[in-house]
Records
---
Amino acid sequence: GGYIKRMPLKQFESQGRGTRGKRGSSLPSSSSDLSVEDENEIAHCFTCNDHDTLLMVTQKGIAYGLRAYQVPTAGRTAKGQPIPSVLPNIPMTDVITSILPIPSSTSSQKDSGGDDDDNSHKFVVLATEQGWIKKTPLQAFENLTSRGLTIATLEEDDRLNWCQVCQDGDDILIGSIQGKATRFELATLRPTGRTSRGVISMKLREGD
């Protein structure tokens, strides 16, 4: 539905097995409560630090950078703020499909206890509906701002729906709607720049 919020972890204390749990948003509790304007669901949920950068990627291949503390805080039952109030440059016709929390270089070094930048050997891997895939060094997004940057060049009938931070040594497993799958080592995928289209990850049959 295009809403976003930030909550302290302390609002969710540990609970025993079999308990009912607590409401984490003001979504309707049943389908009978739904109206056209209330149809909504939780799309992304993750933990991060206030000074982490949120890499927010849209289906049109545009990435926006936002510090976590810039997301307004809200209570457990609150709906949150409309994303355009936090990212005024995002077009109304575009949809955020992935949000990746990226630790800052300073916090990464502090957590790892080393001198090397923990992000230097990481990549952002992106896959599209039409089977294209690419990996771009994470450092290419260090200066990302709320104005947005092109993260992939897409065809008109393609959408960017999946992003993940990976590193060489990881494997990539891709599955299609029609039940086909392929797996390969990330190291075999050549790094490309921000605006590249990438390469074919798997050959899709018509309608897949």
---
Amino acid sequence: MHKILIINGPNLNLLGKRETEIYGKKTLKQIENECQNSFKDEKFELIFFQSNSEGEIIEKLHQYQNFNGIIINAGVFTHTSIAIHDALKTIKLPKIEVHISNIYSREEFRKKSFISPVVDGIIAGFGTNVYQVAINSLKYL
């Protein structure tokens, strides 16, 4: 059984309510349920975690020994957090960065990711499907 940690950062608890023209109408719980249902026959245990706190995300990353892979949508911390970058850099597990929207077609500040240099891959711009694509991708890392 592979345990996959799926971290969601600030404001992702507002999915389905916040900027639905960008992020869609699904809630984070609906995304989690879809992922759990899609991969129920696979050898994955999916652990979803969401926090608006940079420190809580880092603390969760420090528990990496309990997991076989990490998927992270750090939200705005993608563009601001060297601390999350440093935490991810020390983890020698497969790591995938995801974004619901295409960050390169948005505001200029969103085009810089501090996370990208320390992950194995990036999946962006495919709506909430990025989570399932990332989970499936971990089979190959």
---
Amino acid sequence: LSVLTALAVVSRAVFYLIPQVKPIAAVVIVAGMCLGPFSGYMVGALSAFLSNFLFGQGIWTPFQMVALGLVGLLAGMLLRPGRVNRWVLALVGFFLATVVYGLVVDLSTVLMTVTDFTWPAVLAVYASGAPFDLVFGGSTAVFLVLFGTPKKKKKNLKKNQILKKQNNI
């Protein structure tokens, strides 16, 4: 868990110059998918907390922790390695990063900026955050397509074929 958390933190830090293009959610999704819901939640929450030491802690940090934790939790509940292809993984990752993460993190903006809690005011905050959420979700989907599913190793396939031939003799 600590290695995946460190990878998530570094992945966010490496792309700091490009707003909202961060592979952190992709790392959290893969952690949840491979290690289960609890581990996905822990990697998500810890990576948000630790990466904010580089990007700045604030009132938004607990919201980011809960949001990325939920992304990892839901990924662990919805996805199993080997049972989803890269396109389904990217679609689920886009949904989790855009909708789940966006709703929770934008709630912190609603609570910090809106003084008169009316539907138009709340919807205006969510609408202003939608482009950022879409870019974050899109970049998460791209990173999952590129790196989310393991590649088949030909060496293992050849080794298994040789073992099968030896056992049949």
